[in-house]
Amino acid sequence: VGTADNRVKLTITNQNGEDVTSNYTFDNQFGTLEITKRPVTFTSGNGRWIYDGMYHDNPQLTANNLVPGHTYVVRNCANIRDVGTKENSFSLYIYNDSGHSKNVTANYEITTVFGTLEVTKRSITVTTLNNAWIYDGTAHIWDVCSVQNLVPEHSIQLVNCASITDVGQIPNRGEAKVTNPYENDADVTANYEIHYVYGTLKVNPRPIIVAVWDTEKVYDGTPLYGGEPYVPADSPYPLVEGHTLSATVNGSRTDVGVSNSSISKCQIFDGTRDVTFNYSIRTTGGKIRVLQASIL
C-alpha cells in the first residue's frame, strides 16, 4: 500500500529501426501509481456454555475478501468463565503465506464483527437434611445438605439457616453459598440456579417425671399435707437448667395411717415464660404418714 511515480524509459527509432533517442530532449511528466488498502471483514463466531468454572473461547473466524494465499493468526481472543455475555473480541495479524514470512496486515483495511460469548447458570439441587432433638431450651440448626450437579472443585455451605427451640417442626430452610477453594474461597453462588428441597427440623417434648416427697409426722390432731414436688433421679431427663417447677399437690391426713398425695396441676417456667408445653410430664404421688403418738 502506497504511491510511486509511474516512471518509464523511452527509446525512439527511425523508419530504419535506428536509435535516434539522443536527438530528442524530453520533458517528463510522470503519472502516479497507487495501491490502496484492501478491505477485509473478519467475523468471530458465537459460543454458549453452561457454567462449569472453566474459561471458554471461540477463536474461529471467517474472513471476507482476503487475498488468496494469505493467512492470519488470531491474537488476544476474548474468553468468558462466569455467567453473563461478552463480545467475542480479538486482534490478528495477516501474513503473505502459511509460513508467516511477511506481515502484511498494514495493507488491509480491517473491519471486525464480533460474535457473542455467553455462559448460562448451572442448575443444582440442594437438599437440606432432617434432624430432631429432645427439647433442651436451646436453639438448634442443622446446616447439613446434599447437592447434585455442583462443579466438582467447588464447596457448598448453608447460611442463614432456620432454627428451632420449642417443641414442633419447621422446614429446614437455608441459603446455599458456593465457593471456590482454589481461589481463596471466592463466592461463585451467582453462577448457579439453585433449587431447594427442604428437610425438617423437629423438637420433641422432654419427658420428665414429677414426684412428691413423702411426708411423715406424729399424730397431733392437725392435718399433714403432701410434700414438695420434685424431679427424681430416675426421671428420663432432668429439668432444663434454669427452669423452675410449680405444682399443685393434693392430699392430706390427720389421723394415724397412710394416705396418698397426688399432683393435679404442674407447670414449668423459664423465668416468667410458661414452657410447660415443651415437656411430657408423668406425675407420681407420695405418701402421707401419720404415726401414733406416745402417751407417757
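That was protein one. Protein two is written in the same sequence-then-structure order:
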Amino acid sequence: TYNFAYAPYHDQTKWLCNNFLTTGAVSNYALYNYSTYNTGTNNQMSGNNFVSTGGGTGYLVYTYSAYLTNHNYNNYFTNATYAIYYTYEDRLIFDQNRISNVLSTPTYGMYNYYVNRARFTRNNFAFKNGVSAYGFYINGCNISQPTGAMMLYANNMISIGGTSSFSYGIYSTGNDQIDFRSNNMLISNPTTTAYATYWVNSSYSPYNNSFVGNSIVCNAGAKGPYNYSTYTVACNYNNYYVTGSVFGNFNGTDYSSFSAYKTAAISNGREGNSINVDPGYTSTTDLHVSNTAL
C-alpha cells in the first residue's frame, strides 16, 4: 500500500512541506520513490512530516533510485520499523533531518544498502521507548568506487535509550571508503548487546573506512566500540565515555577499561590520540558537548 505517493522514473521533482501519514502495516509506504536506470538528478524532499500511526512496521520513505542525486533537508520522520530505506542511491545528500521512534518494535533510523558517494550530515536520531534500534545500518555501501570517492557520515546525533534486547548507534558491514567524522552518540541501554559502533565481517576489501573525531557515551551496560582492525583504516581522535563493566571489544576480545582497549587498539595502529572524558551532552536528545577538553 502506498499511502501517499508512488513515484517511479522521475527527475527534478520536489516534495515540499507535505504531511505523509501511514498506518504502519508491514507492506505500507508513506513515500515510495522508484527511479532505477533514470540518469536524471536533483530530486528534492524538504520540510515534510512523515508519521506512522500503526505498530511500527512498514516504511516511511523507501527509495530505489540508482544514479540519482536526491537532496533531503529538514524532514521529520517518526514511528516506523524503517524510517528511511535507501538502496542503490548515488551522491545522495541527507542533511538536518530528525528521526524518532517511541514504539516498542525494532526500528532502523536509516537503512543504507548499496548507496555510493553520499553525505549524511547534521541529522538527529532519538529512540527512547525501550526499542531495539539501529541508528545507521550500513551494508555494502561505496564498493568499487574510485579511490578517494569517500562517503560521509558527519555531525549526526544518535540517542538510543530503553531496555531493549539490542541497540547499535552505527552498524557497518561490508563497506568501503566511508568516513565517520564528528558524530555524537548516547546509548543508554543495560544489555550486553548494545554498542555505539559495530563493525562486522564481509567479503569486501580493503575496508578503507575511517572513524575520526567522534564522541560516544554509553550508560548502564552498553558498550562503546566493537572494532576489528581489518575493517577500519583510520580510527583515531575519538572520545569514549562508558560507564558499564565492559568498555568495548577489539579484534574479538572484550576490554573492561578504556586504557586496556586503547592499548590493544594502539598495537594495531588505532586510537593513539583517543580520549576518555564525559562530553557533557546538553540533554539526552541534544548531544552538543560542553566539555572544553573536546
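The chain is about 5% helix and 45% strand. Keep this in mind for the problem set.
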